[in-house]
Specification:
About 25% of the residues lie in helices and about 10% in strands. It is built from seven helices and five strands; from the N terminus they run ααααβαββββαα. Strand 1, helix 5 and strand 2 form a beta-alpha-beta unit. The two termini are about 35 Å apart.
């Protein structure tokens, strides 16, 4: 287990180079991949790299957020900020061309229900956490409430990852009250991308989470093996400042102390224990929501991930406005 948060990892985090637009466009042009033939693919890190390239000030802002987060994680701060719990209103923006993409209210509510279970440790598989990690499994204590659903018919067959779905002048829907409400866009992303999120520090004009309509919730168009609502749990984790558990590098740093070092992303449903070849050969926490395993194989956040998420809602934090 990692003993300290390695702040030196920030240097590598903010010095990464961007994937070329040509390569990304080529990837997103392939919209015919079926869920059974591709692995989980979250574009949050790629989107962050592009945002860092586009905005020279974003790197400095995010480093300040990291310093704030690291400091807050050392404090015994009050994690219950609103009526006994942090409560986040969710605006769901549905963009559809086909009837299937115009997902039902029941499918949307099923996703809200999953978020509430996963972030409050009431998910039915929470007790499957192995004994090795039982002392660090966490009840994050955040409640999600469906605020409203906005629907818009479009002519687009796919939206890609350049935030077009978040902009009315590009055919999408502008976010509603993004400093006090979590905006969640549901649309066909394309290229086998299940979803992506904007990390704290980015522009409020594009803040929120995007989920492909085929991987939202537990009913309707939700498609196996990503039909248990965990894509949104993973992406909301990013929105709350969590990194992929392997740190997006071989034996990388996820800026969390109590998660083991991972070689890289895990897929499918790995047999336990799955050992890393990183220093110390730790057992990997493959069941963590921030890995890439199938929905049925992820079912926990860690204690330090909880602290990292709650830190952003503290006074002076990048999402403090949500806790008022």
């Amino acid at each position: 287990m990692k003993k300290t948060i390695l702040m030196l990892g920030l240097v590598g985090l903010f010095a990464v180079s961007c994937e070329s637009d040509e390569k990304m466009d080529q990837q997103l042009g392939d919209s015919q991949i079926e869920s059974s033939s591709f692995k989980r693919n979250c574009a949050s890190d790629d989107v962050l790299k592009q945002q860092l390239a586009d905005d020279p000030q974003l790197s400095k802002k995010m480093q300040q957020i990291e310093s704030f987060t690291a400091a807050k994680m050392q404090e015994n701060f009050n994690s219950r900020l609103v009526n006994g719990v942090i409560e986040i209103p969710v605006v769901v923006n549905v963009l559809y061309k086909t009837a299937a993409e115009n997902i039902t209210a029941a499918q949307i509510q099923s996703q809200i229900d999953v978020l509430n279970k996963d972030f409050n440790a009431t998910n039915s598989d929470y007790n499957n956490v192995p004994t090795l990690f039982a002392n660090v499994k966490a009840n994050v204590g955040i409640r999600f409430v469906l605020d409203q659903v906005v629907r818009k018919s479009t002519n687009k067959t796919s939206w890609g990852t350049k935030d077009a779905m978040k902009k009315s002048n590009q055919g999408g829907l502008n976010p509603l009250s993004p400093t006090t409400k979590l905006n969640l866009w549901v649309c066909t992303i394309g290229g086998g991308i299940l979803g992506y999120a904007q990390f704290p520090g980015g522009s409020s004009a594009t803040d929120g989470v995007v989920i492909d309509s085929k991987y939202l919730g537990t009913t309707g168009t939700a498609t196996s093996p990503y039909n248990l609502g965990r894509t949104a749990t993973h992406e909301v984790g990013h929105w709350m400042n969590l990194r992929h558990i392997w740190g997006d590098a071989t034996c990388g740093n996820d800026l969390v102390a109590d998660t083991p070092s991972h070689n890289t992303a895990n897929y499918g449903a790995p047999a336990y224990p799955h050992y890393s070849t990183c220093t110390g050969s730790p057992v990997e926490m493959t069941m963590n929501y921030m890995d890439y395993v199938d929905d049925r194989a992820m079912y926990m956040f860690s204690t330090d991930q909880k602290s990292r998420m709650l830190a952003i809602f503290q006074s002076g934090g990048p999402r403090y406005s949500f806790a008022q």
